[in-house]
Amino acid sequence: MDVQQSLKQINEQLEMHCKKGNISTLPDVIAVTKYVTIERAKDAYNAGIRQFGENRLEGFQQKKSALPDDVTMHFIGSLQTRKVKDVINEIDYFHALDRLKLAKEINKRAEHRVKCFVQVNVSGETSKQGIALDEVETFIKRLEQFENIEVIGLMTMAPFTDDAPYIKKLFKLLRAKRDEIKALNLNHAPCTELSMGMSNDFHLAAEEGASFVRIGTKLVGKEE
Ligand SMILES: *Cc1c(COP(=O)(O)O)cnc(C)c1O
């Protein structure tokens, strides 16, 4: 399917599900281009998409240099500390802050304040990256020492399952934690945003008030 068509369908779904969840603002769609070619990423650009997400350094650099410079670039994957210096000043948003050592390196290498999401492991599955829900507040308070880090929100990846009520429950928990942190009024952590929802579950994330959905397969496809 062409990107324009899939984008139209996704937008229709987002509208419907936001309405269902009583959400007045549609989430921003990040096109995750990690599975596709540069050509396909350009198709997405031509379909009107301006926000792109990649989870690896190489793919990130390729797509960023191929796309026009009016795009917003999201780094959505975990980042090895030694690679921070190669990417941190090229991105607009970092979605996977999950350890102090990484925060320290970002702080050292960044030439300006970086908009970060703290990644949360809401389900508690051992295979998932992220801070445990009940450690999020302590972790975020510790980030205050890093002047180049701004915690703009929380991010999660839901487990791969078609148990919709369960996924909705996880998204609700993340939203409640976001509200809790936001209410602390921390200068370094306004924590107003929610990055959640992928191809499988973006509609559920929309119902729960996601500000960014990260969609790969259903938007630009997946090349084997
Ligand atoms: C790959 C990836 C996505 C998109 O996955 P799809 O299921 O293809 O939509 C979203 N977020 C993160 C962190 C990813 O690594």
Q: Which regions contain 5 or more consecutive residues with pLDDT less than 50?
A: none
- The number of helices is 9
Order of helices and strands: HEHEHEHEHEEHEHEHEH
Rg (C-alpha, Å): 17 Å
The helix/strand class is: alpha/beta
Indicate how many domains the architecture comprises: 1
- What small molecules does this complex bind? pyridoxal-5'-phosphate
Name given to the CATH architecture = Alpha-Beta Barrel
Summed over residues and divided by their number, the pLDDT gives a mean of 96
State the helical fraction: 25-40%
The CATH homologous superfamily name equals: Alanine racemase
Modified residues (N6-(pyridoxal phosphate)lysine): 34
Keywords: Pyridoxal phosphate
Function: Pyridoxal 5'-phosphate (PLP)-binding protein, which is involved in PLP homeostasis.
Family: Belongs to the pyridoxal phosphate-binding protein YggS/PROSC family.
Jot down its keywords.
PyrdxlP_homeostasis; PLP-binding_barrel; binds pyridoxal-5'-phosphate; TIM Barrel; globular; 224 residues; alpha/beta; Pyridoxal phosphate homeostasis protein; 9 helices; 9 strands; pyridoxal phosphate
